[in-house]
Every structure is written in structure tokens, then in C-alpha cells.
Amino acid sequence: MSAKIVTITSGKGGVGKTTATANIGVGLASTGERVVCIDADIGLRNLDVIMGLENRIVYDFVDVVEGRCKLRQAMIRDKRLDTLFLIPAAQTRDKTAVSPQDMVRLTNELRQEYDWVLIDSPAGIERGFRNAIAPADQVLIITNPEVSAVRDADRIIGLIEAEEKGPGKLILNRVKPEMVRRGDMLGTEDVLDVLAIELIGIVPEDESVIVATNQGIPVAMEPNSKAGRAFHDIARRLKGEDVPFADLGGGDGFFGRISRMMRAGGES
Amino acid sequence: MNFFQKVGFGRSRSAESAKERLQLVLIHDRAGISPGKLETLKDDLINVISRHIEIETEAVEITLTKERDQHRLVADIPLAPIRKRRHTTS
Q1: Is residue A182 a contact partner of residue B12, using CB atoms and an 8 Å limit?
Q2: Does the N terminus or the C terminus of chain A have fewer Cβ atoms within 10 A?
Q3: Into how many domains does chain A fold?
Q4: A-proximal residues of B, 28-87, CB under 8 Å
Q5: Predicted pLDDT of residue A108
């Protein structure tokens, strides 16, 4: 068995990379897959708090890179899902403490024993981003339906292709179906029109993400969360399952079609 | 943009302008040519062409377009009215 290495990145900050990494990890692990999530945002670590594992950190990724501990010792097992692990980022160092070669070497060590390695990329297109995509077999680009986030996603898609890590797949996060329906938010089709990339997930804006995050519980562990369900769907699609996309206003739902027909009628 | 928007009813449907703005900014981003650079290019182009033919400098339009993977620089350069040109060249 050889793990697949998946990097979650976005260019723009604050669009949901860390939340997506944690919850896709939960989605995969809850089907019995062995998953390691790596926080590659050195100096600004956050995957630990999103996963609710911040109190159990002893060693971090830079300790492993610099030989102060074994890879195994830096891995924290999630007690709620015993096939889910976190390797936290160092908080007091910066991105230059790790090289792309280090990332490739250490993730290769994980390949034999795990099914998935998920890498949470830092924002930006500099060293931290280069580190995060260096070992990737697959890159997921996450964005929000906003001009600035989609623009940055386009830049990232170009960089990933230049690094021969493409084609990436897109997660559209924080969609408000009601706003899409009334024409005040870019819908899935709009975003796919401009980006020309394959879609792997649509995640609705959902207050339960904040509630869950407040308590250190990844939202995908909550059975009744819409966002949580969307992350489970992404995990299943990563595994190769054919999971239909839920309609979030921009798809082919009844209301979407009607409102688009009305819009088309109003033109010219 | 529909009729009601043009006349100012229902300020809604901002998604359309978001999409239009995105498409425009991405054409420039992808080609690596900023709108400012295009403006400089346009001025140079006007200078060069004006040395040979009289043109309507105010109406010159240089735009970037994209069809599939091909970026294209499109220049629309209207000539000055014939009467005027005859006058200056004779």
C-alpha cells in the first residue's frame, strides 16, 4: 500500500485551507483509511487547533527535519478516530526551516504505512507554498465565490501546472445558496467558467463550522452539519467514488434554472 | 446587464459584475500584461502609425482577448476621415 499525497492550497489566506484539510482528513479516516495531516504553515500553525489536538503537541515537523526526533514521535493520534494523525508545524520558526526536498523525503517515509497524507499549505506563493506542493501527487485548490479569491486561485492553478503538479481540482467553499439564487454571489458554474478546472467539492457557508471550531471538533465529526457532509463527499470523491454534487443555487436545481431563465429573458 | 439594472432598479445581481470583472482581470493576469502596460503600448502604436497614416487617435482601442489557449492582442485603429487625410497629405 502506498499513500497518496494531497496538498490543499489557495493562494489567498482565510478561504478555508486548514478547515478543509482537517475535515477531509476526518472524512477519509472515518471510512477506515489511515490518514496523516501535515501542517506546512510553519510559524503560523493552526491545523492543531482546528483538529482540537493542540494540547498534545510534544514535537513538531521542524524537530523531525532537524533530527531532534523521529517522524513517529511528532505524530499525534486523534483519539476520536484512531486512523487519523497530525504532524504539527513549528510555531517559533519560519518557512525556511524546511526545504522542498525535506518535504519529499519525509512524506516518502509515510507512504508505506498510510493511505493518505494531507498537506495544509500556507497562504501565498513563496517558500511555504513550494514546500507544500513539492511532494504532492494531487493538489486541491480551495477558493471562495469572491473576485479576489478566484483570481488568486487562477494564479495558483497556473503555478501548479508550471510545476507539473496539475491538473488540480477545485473546492468552492463558503457558498451561500440564497445569495447565488438571487444573483448576488458567483455560483459554481460562474467560477468553473472562468477557472477551467475540475470540481471536487462545493461547501456551503455553515455556522456549525464556527461552533465546531470553537470546541476543537472538526465539523465533519458533527452528523448534522451541511458543511461537514460536503467534506465527507470530497473525501469519497478523492477515493474515486462517484458522488453527485448537491445543488447550491448555481447548479441545475429548479430555482436556479428559473432564475437563470428570468435573467436571460431580461437581457438584450 | 438587463434593462432594470440600466435604469437603476434593483441594484442586485452583483454576481454578474463580479464575473465580468474577474474575466477581465484574469485575461491580463494570465497574459502577464497589466492594463498600464497596454496603455503605454497603445501610445507607442499611435505614434508609429501616425508617422505613416493619419488616424483617429482618440478612438484607438487595444484589447487583450483569449480564445482557448491563444491570447490575442486586438487593435482597432480607425483612420481619419478621407477628406482630412487628403488635405494633410497634399
Answers
A1: yes
A2: C
A3: 1
A4: 29-30
A5: 97
